[in-house]
Amino acid sequence: MKKLIVIVLTVFLLPIPSLSCQTLLKERKENSTENGDIDIVYPLSTYPAIVEKGKSFTITIVIERNGYSFHCTEPRAVSVVEKISDTFSFVHASDFHIGDPRGIGVNIKETIRWKAAKKSIEEINLLHPDFVIISGDLVYGQYYPFEYTREYKKCYEILQSFDVPTFLCPGNHDGYFKFREDGFNFWKEYFGPLYYSFDYGNYHFLAVNSYDWPPYARITLLFVPLNWGGYISDEQLKWIEKDLMENDANLTFMFMHHNPLWDTKRNSLLGNEYYNRKEILSLIYEYDVDAVMAGHVHYDNITVINGTIFITTTTVASSLGKDDAYWGYRLIEIENGSIASYNYREPEYSIPSYHLNITYENDYTAIVENELERDMICHLKFVVPSGEYDAKNGEIIMERERNGRAEIYVKTVVEKKSRKEVILIQSSVPTDRLSLYSRQRFQNLA
């Protein structure tokens, strides 16, 4: 049954994964919210709105000033729920590496045309978490001139396949400086600020830029960067401390590309250490950050120190950093205000890709195959003619109708090492179709 709910929609500029600003006039001028080229600071405002439960909304803000029209668009910027619960889930993924050829060593077929990255999104959508966090290295940016122009555009397009809001922070591959091309300028244009924070109910998240080197230290020479290790600037460190000081959330999470537990001196041709690594660790412990999520090394790791869980998640699509590593992503579950789960398999492993598959046999039938070692809750979407439906082997949790078509969302539990067939069964025929059928039947009888 289609449901409408009334919410108070708070609209403000979120730095989630798709802030793109451009000027439309006779001649095009590039702008961004990060470098201050344009003034688009909005006061926090609330507006009552009637919206549809379960739907994601794109926010587009348009300002006209001095003959210029400024457009800021954020796809999937608002996801509508009845209320924010103390029980929710999110996925942590890392190292998408759009444009990276190194994945060929793992699987050449799935590396071509970014199939591995797309497959991970398909699987994450099947799990349908409340949101997704990606901790850097979304592109590659290391080989040829003007590489970022192509890779950032393609990465932006691929990310729009997510069904839920996504939050990003940059990694070293996102910010190299080469051939007069600064990767971080592309980041600001496509994704927004390099560091920020946001709240999900009473849960606080900080996105940290751990590759905050000045431009001259991010230069690549003959396709080899001077530094690819960690660096947190003094300015950013002050912002982090201020943000943590003002935070009184139930749980606090931080995500960055380089795990602050590990020095990255070997990730520098000049032998530079991870700048402000010890300082940010002190802040993490002082302000009781509950979990820190990172990537970079292309393998899984869990380390718990002073009550803080340091979570490192493997790559989605690049080369592997350990013999037992694989492509994957991590489901993190919060239950009744506490971190309940962050491992697919103990003691540290994430969910391996290519073990969860969905095939639509037709508009009404889907087959889900779960090759994992645990039961998985999956969400399926069917697009069918409007009508009343029941679900075999699943539960209908939401329906949306428009112009004679319906989107029907079904939740099902797929047991480990099994496959399940989910079928939509029409329980009644819509009135307009029934009337047409009756007239045709009577004409045939006549």
Structural class computed from helices and strand pairing: alpha+beta
User: What is the alpha-carbon Rg in Å?
Assistant: 24 Å
Largest sheet: 6 strands, mixed
Shape: globular
Mean pLDDT: 86
* Domain module count: 3
Number of DSSP strands? Answer: 28
The CATH level-2 architecture of the largest domain is identified as 4-Layer Sandwich
**Helix proportion of residues, in percent?**
10-25%
Stretches with pLDDT under 50, minimum 5 residues: 1-47, 433-446
Gap from first CA to last CA: 38 Å
If helices are DSSP runs of H or I spanning 4 or more residues, what is the number of helices?
Answer: 7
Percent of residues in beta strands?
Answer: 35-45%
> At the third CATH level, what is the topology name of the largest domain?
Purple Acid Phosphatase, chain A, domain 2
- Within CATH, the superfamily of the largest domain carries the name Metallo-dependent phosphatases
CATH C-level label of the largest domain: Alpha Beta
Summarize the structure in short.
With 446 residues, the protein is an alpha+beta fold. It has helices at 108-111, 115-127, 147-159, 183-190, 234-245, 277-286, 431-445; strands spanning 4-11, 20-24, 45-52, 56-65, 68-79, 88-93, 131-135, 166-169, 177-178, 181-182, 196-200, 203-207, 220-221, 224-225, 251-255, 291-294, 301-305, 308-312, 328-335, 338-341, 351-352, 356-362, 365-370, 376-385, 388-392, 395-402, 405-414, 418-428.
Textual characterization of the structure:
- The protein has helices at 108-111, 115-127, 147-159, 183-190, 234-245, 277-286, 431-445; strands at 4-11, 20-24, 45-52, 56-65, 68-79, 88-93, 131-135, 166-169, 177-178, 181-182, 196-200, 203-207, 220-221, 224-225, 251-255, 291-294, 301-305, 308-312, 328-335, 338-341, 351-352, 356-362, 365-370, 376-385, 388-392, 395-402, 405-414, 418-428.
- It has 446 residues and is an alpha+beta fold.
- The protein has three domains: 1-82, no CATH class; 84-352, Purple Acid Phosphatase, chain A, domain 2 (4-Layer Sandwich); 356-432, Immunoglobulin-like.
- The strands form eight sheets. Strands 6, 7, 8, 19, 20 and 21 form a six-stranded mixed sheet that branches. A six-stranded mixed sheet has the order 11-12-15-16-18-17, with no helix packed on it. A four-stranded antiparallel sheet has the order 22-23-28-25, with helices on one face.
- It is globular.
- The two termini are 38 Å apart.
- 38% of the residues are buried.
